[in-house]
């Protein structure tokens, strides 16, 4: 199967997606069309449904209604593992490395379990992911010994080891110092420049705005603003959402 989206077709199409947990409606009729190569940021208050949207996109959670299309294929009923093999990589808000394994072995797990690679191909892909995530110098360090920035980078490397066309980042900059954040932003900018499509949820708006060319604001499970980042941040809708709380 070709992994490329057809000419003029979005790489990702989220159409009328809803997600409920019992009586709790977390997402309501979300529409999102993401062209190949775009870096899209998602902001929104705590509990807005941002992580849930990423989960519905990568298949960790199934949509209660609506469809998700990826690279020209309806993946709504496809599980997360198959979506990863089809080209979606995701980092999680709380890094969950195998702490007793080395950085390289963690990346290798992404290449084997995530991308379904074996042997030399898996080794090569894991190494490539470590290069992209700027972690080659700590390849033999146990993951459990990494400082926070290292754990964030490892989360990125594990996602990159699946060789994603679409990279989903969930609050990867949270908790870092300004200098650490800047270095991670540089890595993500390089990935974006190489053509990877990115959807990035982030509360550290400064980091987001240094990379993305489009910004969406999600509030109470609904997209309330979508467009050029500075214009979105200044919009009445976003100001109203953050009134009192602040970004
Ligand atoms: N598995 C689940 N079962 C029940 N409720 C859930 C589940 N996952 C998320 N929720 C609820 O859905 C809502 C949205 O959560 P979500 O984590 O998507 O928000 P978020 O915008 O990512 O928030 P934050 O910025 O704090 O990470 C919250 O009220 C949360 O408690």
UniProtKB/TrEMBL annotation:
> What keywords does the record list, in alphabetical order?
ATP-binding, Nucleotide-binding, Transport
The record's annotation in SMART domains points to:
AAA (SM00382)
- Identify the InterPro entries for this entry: AAA+_ATPase (IPR003593), ABC_AA/LPS_Transport (IPR051120), ABC_transporter-like_ATP-bd (IPR003439), P-loop_NTPase (IPR027417)
Q: Which GO terms describe its cellular component?
A: plasma membrane
Q: Which domain of life is it from?
A: Bacteria
Q: Where is the ABC transporter domain?
A: 12-245
Give GO BP annotations, semicolon-separated: D-alanine transmembrane transport; L-alanine transport; L-isoleucine import across plasma membrane; L-valine import across plasma membrane
Keyword DNA repair in annotation: no
Question: Molecular function (GO) terms listed?
Answer: ATP binding; ATP hydrolysis activity; L-isoleucine transmembrane transporter activity; L-phenylalanine transmembrane transporter activity; L-valine transmembrane transporter activity
The answer to whether keyword Transport applies is yes
Q: What is this protein called?
A: Amino acid/amide ABC transporter ATP-binding protein 1, HAAT family
- Name the source organism: Demequina mangrovi
Q: What is the lineage of its organism?
A: Bacteria, Bacillati, Actinomycetota, Actinomycetes, Micrococcales
